[in-house]
Amino acid sequence: MRFKHNKKRNSAFVFEALTREFAKASLKKDRPYLKKVKKLLQEVFNKKKLMYKELRLYKALLETKEVDPITAEKILYEVRRVYSTFSEKTLNDEHTEAIHKINHELNPSVFQNFVSNYKSIASAYQIFHEDDLNVKDKVLLEKKLVQSMVFKDERAEEIEEPIDEVVIKTFIKKFNKTFGSLMTEQKTLISKYMGSLDSDDTELRVFVNEELGRLKKELKKSLTVEEFRADSLMKEKAIKVLHLLEGFRKKRNYVKKDLVMLLKTQDLVREIQQ
C-alpha cells in the first residue's frame, strides 16, 4: 500500500513553506504581510514547542552528510528514541494549531509553495510514522536514509567548519580594513550568523531570505540605469552576482564562504547606490 504523506503535519515542510512565503513577501515589499509571516514562524517554531524539536530531528536526518554507516545508524536510532518521548497528542495539537493559523492568518496557498527537497522531507516523515509501514518498507526506508547520510556528493562544494566568535571578530576587523565600516545590514547578518552557531538557523534564514530580495531588486534596478550600463565592468559584476544570488536559497547550510559573498554583495549594492 502506498504511504500517505500529510505535508501539512510535516514540521520540516511547514518550515520550508513558511520560509519561502517570507521570501516571496520580501520580494514584493509587502511589509504588513512580511511581519505576519515572521510572527507566525516565531510562534510555530518556538523553542519550547514540540514542532521546533521535531524540526531539529528532521534536520539531523536531512542535513547530516558524509558520515560513516555506523554513525548514520546511531543518528537514526537517536532520532527515533527522541521522537518516542514526544507527546503524540501535544504534537498533533500543535500541528492543528499551525495549520489553522496559516489558513486564517496567512493563506492556504502557503502549503502549495514549492519546496526543492520535498521528496527527502517526505521520506524522513515516514520515520515518524513507521506504524503505517510493513517490515519490508521499514527496512528499505532505513537503508535509504542511512545511505543519504553516508553518500558523498562530489559536486558539492567543500564543507567548511563553523567559525567561532573569535574568528568572527577577526574577520570583521579584516573586512572593515578592506572595505570600510560595516553597514547596519552587514552587522545584522553577522549577528544572525553568530546566533545560528549556538542554536538553530531559523532567524538567519529568515533574514537572509529578506536580504536576498532586497539585494536582487537593487542589482536589477541598477541594470536599467543608463550610466551604470555604460560601465561594462560594473555591469558585468552585477550580472555575475545576480546569478550567484539566484541559486543561494537552494543551499541547506551556510558557511563562511556564503557569509563573505553576502557581505561583499551588500557592499557592491552600497557602491552602486552612491
Quick take:
The protein is mostly helical and about 270 residues long. The chain is built from 13 helices and no strands. The chain folds into 2 domains: about 5-150, no CATH class; about 165-274, no CATH class.
Dominant shape: globular
N-end to C-end Cα span: 62 Å
Secondary structure tally, helices: 13
Largest sheet, strands/sense/barrel: none
Strand content: under 5%
The overall number of domains is: 2
Query: Could you report the average pLDDT, rounded to the nearest whole number?
Result: 80
Order of helices and strands: HHHHHHHHHHHHH
Structural class: mainly alpha
Low-confidence segments: 154-163
Number of strands: 0
Radius of gyration: 21 Å
Portion of residues within helices:
over 70%
Describe the protein in words.
This protein folds into two domains: about 5-150, no CATH class; about 165-274, no CATH class. The protein has 13 helices and no strands. The longest helix has 21 residues, at about 200-220. The protein has helices at about 10-25, 30-45, 50-65, 70-85, 90-105, 120-125, 135-150, 165-180, 185-200, 200-220, 225-230, 230-245, 255-274. The chain is mainly α and about 270 residues long.
List the SSEs and their pairings.
Layout: H1 11-27, H2 31-44, H3 50-63, H4 69-84, H5 88-106, H6 118-127, H7 135-150, H8 165-179, H9 184-198, H10 202-222, H11 226-230, H12 232-246, H13 256-273
Helix pairs in contact: 1-2, 1-10, 2-5, 3-4, 4-7, 6-7, 9-10, 9-13, 10-12, 10-13
Highlighted features:
globular; 2 domains; mainly alpha; 274 residues; single chain; 0% strand
